[in-house]
Every structure is written in C-alpha cells, then in structure tokens.
Amino acid sequence: MKPRNPVVVTVTPNPSIDRTIALGGPLTRGAVHRVQSVSDEPGGKGVNVARVLTLAGIDACAVLPARSDDPFLSVLSPTGVGYSAVPVTGTVRTNIAVTENDGTTTKLNEPGAELDAASIAALTDAVVGQAAGAHWVVMSGSLPPGVPDDWYAEVVALLRELPCKVAVDTSEGPLAALAAGFERAAPDLIKPNSEELASLSGADPAALEQSVQQGDPEPVVAAATALMDRGVGAVLATLGAAGAVLINGTGAWMAAAPPITPRSTVGAGDSSLAGYVRAAIGGAEEPRRLQMAVAYGSAAAALPGSALPSPRQIDLDAVQVVSIAPDR
Questions:
Q1: How confident is the model at residue 326 (pLDDT cuts 50, 70, 90)?
Q2: Which CATH architecture has domain 8-323?
Q3: Is the separation of the CB atoms in 64 and 30 below 8 Å?
C-alpha cells in the first residue's frame, strides 16, 4: 500500500513488531510479575515517524524490508500508513518493551533478520525511487545483520542528488559511520539524544542534559556546532526531561519539556522528529519546529505503551522556546 506521491518517505531497515508489556509496579530482576496488559504495534523508528505523520494527515510512505506474508504487515496495515515493502527471506523481528507504572521502560530488542547483498541493493533502490518526489526522507533506527554500518552514509550520498531534505536518527556503529562520511554524505538534519551526541563529541551524556536543565545549553551547542562545521545542516538534540535544543546555521534555540506524568518513553524521540518534520513541511520557522518537536515528544511520553500522539493530544502552548544564540 503506497501513497502515489508521498510528502515524506521514512526508511526503517530494521522494522519490528513492538510488544509492550505493562506492569502495575516496578520491575524486579528474578521476580514473578503479574502483567496488566500486552499490546502489539508495528514498530521501528521510521515506522513510528510515518505513523505520527499519518495521524496528522500527512502522506507518508514507510520503506522497509518484509515479505508480503510477514505478520508485521498485518499489524501495520490497520494503521493506514502507506508502505513500500522490499521482499526478503527472513521474518521481521519482535521487540519487547516492559513498562512500569512510573514510566520506566526496559527494552529487549532482537537483532532482526539478516539481509543479503541483493536485498540491500533492492532496499536502496526502493528508497531512492520513493524519494524522487518527496519533500523529506527520514532514515531511522538500527541496521539489521548483513547491512554494513556505512549504509546510511551511502544512501544519504545518493539522496543528495535529489531535491528532498534528509534527516537521520541512528546510533552506535551506523551513527559513527555516518559521521565519518559527513564530507560527502552530511544530512540536512540529525536527531541525536544525549548519549548519541556525546558519542560524537566525547562529552558526558548526563552532563549535557544537566547543563540544559540548569539553563546552560552551551555544551550542547558546542557539540552540535562541531557537527555542523563538518556539513550537517541542523541538529535537533532531544534530551529527555530536559527538553531539546535546535541548532542550525542561523541560530540556536532551547525548549524545556512541559510537566507531564510519564507513562512510557517508547516512540518519544520518533514523535519529536515527526513533529519537527510536520512543522517544516508547513513552512514553520525554526523556533516553531522545535516547539512542535518537544510538544510531540512530551505527548508521546505521557501515553501508555507504544501509543503515538495525534494532533489533538499536542499542547504547543505548554512549550516555551528561547533563543540562545541569535547571532550565529
């Protein structure tokens, strides 16, 4: 099921069926727990972005590897998200998230089905083909076995020949490989969390979050600026309860997260990225993009399990944006 002319193409090389197990109390290692609820949702970071955008009425196409009879597609289809599934031999993985009543989430992620060279080539071709008429391409998540760490960098380099904007949200080896190729494959936007930004800058992730909470975003700005000096267009640093910082070539802005009762962090970062892209597609300036990103991320964290926010659950007025580097 593919939109004819998707506005946004999301890329999820390692999709998953996300099974959320909700507990009524804290998780104790080695103990027996009674489960309050279990739910299955189509997952993978790019799929989450596509689901949030679809809820907002934006035509999105999720590109991913999956056989036509894979159980994952049976879970995805009812969401109304358009998709382009590249046939592979393996089965989409199942990830488990255990959520506690205070919002603490413990994740158990399977590695995913291995892709061979032909499947990788077909996935690359599908991304480039779908991206030809899109406004944004959002590439998110881990890479499955068989896919080299530099795959994101290779695809970004191909997409630079097209008019679409490119955002990447990944971590560990794929993020390091992307950074190593910034000179030829720098995306228009990257969305690191504190740990990912720290891995690129050598900073302490806890120190980055704490500095923003104390009203001193300079360490985050400095780390992001170093990435932009290597070609990245903008950095959206999502910092959990500390809020987020957005830096581009014209300025930097900070937004604190509004007070919420956290229920689950599953999909919060993906919702933030979707909020940014939604605002960008609407022609919003950077402060509004940041405001929308934080509002979406906060709304997701206030929802149970792997539920994702719709526009009616977004409270933009609760998010205050402050310019922190107006003369960049």
A1: low
A2: 3-Layer(aba) Sandwich (3.40)
A3: no
**What proportion of the chain, given as a percentage, has pLDDT over 90?**
78
User: Could you tell me the pLDDT band of residue 292, with boundaries at 50, 70 and 90?
Assistant: very high
Q: pLDDT for 201-246, tens place per residue?
A: 888 888 888 888 888 888 999 999 999 999 999 999 998 888 999 9
296's torsion region: left (phi>0), alpha (psi -120 to 50) or beta? alpha
Indicate which residues carry an active-site annotation. 270
- Which of 20-34, 86-100, 162-176, 203-217 is least confident? 203-217
pTM: 0.91
What is the three-state SS of the chain?
CCCCCCCEEEECCCCEEEEEEEECCCCCCCCCCCEEEEEEEEECHHHHHHHHHHHCCCCEEEEEECCCCCHHHHHHHHHCCEEEEECCCCCCEEEEEEECCCCCEEEECCCCCCCCHHHHHHHHHHHHHHHCCCCEEEEECCCCCCCCCCHHHHHHHHHCCCCCEEEEECCHHHHHHHHHCHHHHCCCEECCEHHHHHHHHCCCHHHHHHHHHCCCCHHHHHHHHHHHCCCCCEEEEECHHHCEEEEECCCEEEECCCCCCCCCCCCHHHHHHHHHHHHHHCCCCHHHHHHHHHHHHHHHHCCCCCCCCCHHHCCHHHCCEEECCCCC
